[in-house]
Amino acid sequence: MLNVGIRSELDHYACVVDLLGCAGWLEEAEHLIISMPIIPDIAIWDALHGACRVHANAEMGRTVGNLLIQSDKIHDGRNINRMRRQRISTMCGMKLLRKFSYIAKTKGVVFDIEALAFGLMYTEPGSLIRIVKNIRICNDCHSTIKLVSKVFKRKIVVCDCYHHLENGQCSCMDYW
Question: Among residues 69, 70, 71, 51, which one has the least CA distance to residue 61?
Answer without folding.
Answer: 51
